[in-house]
Amino acid sequence: MTHVVDGQPLAQAVLDSLKSKIDRLNGMGVSPSLAVVTVGDSDSIHACLSVKERACTEAGIRLISHRLPETASMESLTMLLEQLNADPHVHGVVIHLPVPARLDQFMLVSRIAPEKDVDTLHPLNLGRLARGMVEQAPSRARACMQLLDHLQVNLHGKNVVVLGENKHLGNPFVPLCLNRHATITVCPKDGENISDIASLADVLLIAEGAPNTLPRHWVRPGAVVIDLRLFGDGKENASDLLDFDSLRSLTSAICPAKSCTEPLSVALLLENTVRVALRQQDKEQGRQRVILNIQADDQPGVLSHVLNYIRQDGVNITELNASAVGVSANLYLVLDVEADGYRVQDLVDRVFQIPGIKNVDHYKEVR
What we know:
This protein has helices at 8-27, 43-59, 74-86, 105-110, 123-130, 139-150, 173-179, 194-198, 244-247, 257-284, 302-312, 344-352; strands at 3-4, 33-39, 62-68, 92-95, 159-163, 183-187, 203-206, 224-227, 253-255, 287-297, 316-325, 328-338, 357-366. The protein is α/β, with parallel strands linked by helices. 40% of the residues are buried.
C-alpha cells in the first residue's frame, strides 16, 4: 500500500535542530532575519508566505516581507535587493519565483548577494552545486534528497525523471542525482514520448503542470512520486495536487506538495538563514570557513582517517555530511579556522596523501 509521506515531522526536526544555534545568536544580540520579496498578489504568493511565516514564528526567526505590486519595475526591485544586501541585520534574501514575465528573473536572482542567497539560486552558488558541493543545493532540491533518504531509497543505478524543465524547482535536482550515480532525465512539458519516459522512472519528480495531471499509465508500479508544485486557491488541500485515489494502489510512496515538500523546503531555507547569521558573526570575530568536498574510495576507514587527520590539526569541524555512492564515498566538511595564519592548501595537500583519496575540492570564505 502506498505510503503518503508527512513532511511536517521532518520539517519540525530541522527547526528543533536550529534552536541552540538561534539561542547562541540571541545571546550575542543577533536576531536571524529572512527578507522575502514578492511581486504581485496571487493566491500562490499568499500560500507560500503563510508557510514561511508559521515556520519563522516557530523557529524564532524574524521574517521581513516586502510585497511589491504587479507593476513593480526592474529598477525598484534592483534597488530593494541592493538595500537588503547592504543591511547587516538581514541575513537571508529570497525572491518569490516566478516573477511576472516582463521582468528579468535571472537578473533579479543574480542581484542577490551570493552570501545572502539562502535559496541557493545565484549563478555562483549553482556553479558550486555543479562542482559537487551538494550542501549548496536549493532548499527544494535538498528536501527531495532528504525525503528519499527518509524512505531509504538508494539512487545508485535508479531511473529518475523530472516532469517539467523548471530552472528553479526540478533542474537543481540533477547534480544531486548524478552525485549519487542515478540516471536522470528532465522532460519539458511539451516534449515527445513523455509518458514512455515517465513510466520507466523509479523516482518521478513533478516540477510543472496543472493539478491532477499525472495519468496512471505514466507511473511505474512501485515508483516514488514527489510533487514540488505549490498552488494556492483558498482550498484546504489545494496544494496536494495528485489524484491519490488513482495512484494509491500503484506507487510505493507519494510526497505531496503542501503537506510534505513545502514545509520541509521552508525549514531548510531557515536552516540556511541561521547558517548565514553565524557566518556573519564569524567574520566580525576574525574567523573564516573552509569548505572541503572530498571524494574517496568506499573502503572501511578511509573517511574516518580523514576526519581524525583534520582533527589532529586542531581544526574545528562545524558541519559534516558523508554519503556512500557505489564504489565511492563523499565527505562534505566545513571547518572553522582563524582568518589569518592558516594555510588551506597545505591541509589539502596532506589530505591527498591519505590512501584512497580521489579528489578534494575546496574554497574558503572570510565572513
